[in-house]
From TrEMBL:
Gene behind the chain: ftsQ
Protein role: Essential cell division protein.
Native organism: Segniliparus rugosus (strain ATCC BAA-974 / DSM 45345 / CCUG 50838 / CIP 108380 / JCM 13579 / CDC 945)
Principal subcellular localisation of the protein: membrane
Protein name per the record: Cell division protein FtsQ
Subcellular location: Cell membrane; Membrane
Keyword Cell division tagged: yes
């Protein structure tokens, strides 16, 4: 009798666990108990919440557990101005999308306006006039994969604030021919994007001397010319 009761109790426990698991799966994946009712977008500045919501390709009422977070993340990051996105669920009914937008570090001059370029070389937005203080990028083919573009941006990113703030234009004829033109018209030739901090220190020390061009591509033997 005792064995029978124990066996029955164990069987009942297993049945309860199976029922509970089944109920949980049904509630999470098929019922309206955890259905999507709101999408909260944060971190956006220039891209609208409506545009982000349109890219999600999900409908109100869809169970939260059935929302593919990786797919939603990829869709949001396909927006040109978005650098990255984080997506997470808040039960019972909310999906959060946290957006990080691209920031311009330079711009390309085109007939249709100023194309803003971020630190990775992505042309992500066009405005009538470039923001004040943003340097111009002069390269033959401005893309994130272009070696000259990469070298120009790598050089600019390594400049100390004292020198970076004076730059009006960054030019790269090739990945080993990078130069910057200062606001007063003087030109600093860096060559490649290697050893930029040292080259910049040499350039800053030389800028007190009168010249039009400061070649610090070989920082041990800099050359000044008019």
């Amino acid at each position: 009798m005792i064995r029978w009761l124990r066996a029955w109790g164990l069987t009942a426990l297993v049945i309860l666990l199976v029922v509970a698991a089944g109920t949980g799966i049904w509630a999470g994946y098929f019922s309206q108990w955890f259905a999507l009712r709101s999408v909260v977008v944060s971190g956006n500045v220039t891209v609208s919440k409506e545009e982000v919501a349109r890219r999600l390709n999900i409908s109100a009422g869809e169970p939260l557990l059935r929302v593919d977070l990786d797919d939603v993340k990829a869709r949001v990051e396909s927006i040109r101005v978005v650098a990255s996105a984080e997506v997470f669920r808040e039960f019972p009914h909310t999906l959060h999308v946290v957006v990080v937008e691209r920031s311009p570090v330079t711009y390309i001059e085109r007939t249709d306006g100023a194309h803003l370029v971020d630190k990775t070389g992505v042309d992500f937005s066009t405005v009538p006039q470039p923001p004040e203080g943003l340097p111009k990028l002069a390269v033959a083919r401005a893309t994130a994969q272009d070696p000259a573009t990469k070298a120009a941006l790598a050089t600019f990113s390594q400049l100390p604030d004292e020198l970076r703030g004076q730059v009006a234009e960054i030019e790269a004829k090739s990945e080993i021919e990078v130069s910057v033109t200062l606001a007063d018209g003087r030109v600093v030739l860096f060559g490649s994007s290697e050893d930029v901090p040292r080259k910049a220190r040499v350039a800053l020390a030389l800028l007190s001397q009168q010249a039009k061009t400061y070649n610090v591509s070989s920082p041990n033997t800099p050359v000044l010319s008019d």
